[in-house]
TrEMBL record:
Sequence intervals crossing the membrane: 75-97, 117-138, 163-186
Role played: Claudins function as major constituents of the tight junction complexes that regulate the permeability of epithelia.
Natural source organism: Sula dactylatra
Subcellular location: Cell junction, Tight junction; Cell membrane
Membrane topology annotation: Multi-pass membrane protein
Swiss-Prot/TrEMBL keywords: Cell junction, Cell membrane, Membrane, Signal, Tight junction, Transmembrane, Transmembrane helix
Pfam families per record: PMP22_Claudin (PF00822)
Family affiliation: Belongs to the claudin family.
PANTHER family (alphabetical): CLAUDIN (PTHR12002)
Classification lineage: Eukaryota, Metazoa, Chordata, Craniata, Vertebrata
Matches recorded under InterPro entries: Claudin (IPR006187), Claudin_CS (IPR017974), PMP22/EMP/MP20/Claudin (IPR004031)
GO molecular function: structural molecule activity
Protein name, entry field: Claudin
Length: 219
C-alpha cells in the first residue's frame, strides 16, 4: 500500500513536470531585456524564446516575431530546441507507460509486467529530466557570461526569464519522479532475490524403493 501511494505521488510530480516542460518549451521569455530609457512611458521589454521573440510596450501593445531560420540561430538555441522537444516526448511516453505499470491501476497484466512497465516509465522520466536540464543550464550559462562581459553594451545584456526557471523546476520534478518509480521496482526485485521461494522436497526414489522392499517382506 505504501509503495502504491509513493508511485501515485511520483505520478503527480511527473504530471507537473510534463506540463512545466511543455510550458517552458513554448514560452518566449527565456531571455528578458528591460530598456526603460529616459522616459518610463516608452519603456520596452524584449523577450527572446526558442521559437519567437516578443516585445512588450508599456502602452499595452504586444508583438511577436517567429524565428523561421534555424541555421541563423546560435548553437545553444538549436540544441535547446531539440532537447526540450525530446524531453516533452519522453515525459509523455513516461506518463503513458507508468499509467499501465502503477499498482493502483488494473492495467498491464500480472505483477512482473507492471513492474517492468513502471521501471521503463521511470527511465523515460529520468532521461526527460536530463534532456530538460541540459538546455536550461546551457542557456543560463550563456546569459550570465554575456551579462558579466564588460565588452558587451548594457542595452544588449539580458537576464534569465521565467521559462528558464520553469524548465529547471520541471526537470527536477521529472528526475525525482523517475528515481521514485525505478527504486520502487528495484526494491521488489531485490527482495525476490534475497528471499527466493522455498523449494518443496519430494521423496527420493531410494525411499520409494525401500518402501516397496518392506512391503515385499510381508508377502
Amino acid at each position: 500500500m505504501a509503495s502504491a501511494s509513493l508511485q501515485f505521488f511520483a505520478f503527480i510530480l511527473a504530471l507537473f513536470g510534463v506540463f512545466g516542460d511543455i510550458a517552458a518549451t513554448l514560452l518566449p521569455n527565456w531571455k528578458v531585456n528591460a530598456d526603460v530609457g529616459s522616459n518610463i512611458i516608452t519603456a520596452i521589454t524584449q523577450m527572446q524564446g526558442l521559437w519567437m521573440d516578443c516585445t512588450w510596450y508599456s502602452t499595452g501593445m504586444f508583438s511577436c516575431t517567429l524565428k523561421y531560420s534555424i541555421l541563423s540561430l546560435p548553437i545553444y538555441i538549436q540544441a535547446a530546441r531539440t532537447t526540450m522537444v525530446l524531453s516533452c516526448i519522453l515525459s509523455a511516453f513516461g506518463i503513458c507507460i507508468t499509467t499501465v505499470g502503477m499498482k493502483c491501476t488494473k492495467l498491464g497484466g500480472d505483477t512482473d509486467s507492471k513492474s517492468h512497465a513502471c521501471f521503463a516509465g521511470g527511465v523515460c522520466f529520468i532521461i526527460a529530466g536530463i534532456c530538460g536540464l541540459v538546455p536550461t543550464s546551457w542557456h543560463m550559462r550563456e546569459i550570465i557570461s554575456n551579462f558579466l562581459d564588460q565588452t558587451i553594451p548594457e542595452s544588449s545584456k539580458h537576464e534569465p526569464g521565467g521559462a528558464v526557471y520553469t524548465g529547471f523546476i520541471s526537470a527536477g520534478l521529472l528526475l525525482i519522479a523517475g528515481v521514485i518509480f525505478c527504486t520502487s521496482c528495484l526494491k521488489k526485485q531485490q527482495g525476490a532475490w534475497i528471499y527466493p521461494p522455498k523449494q518443496h522436497n519430494f521423496p527420493s526414489t531410494e525411499q520409494e524403493s525401500n518402501a516397496g522392499y518392506n512391503l515385499k517382506d510381508y508377502v
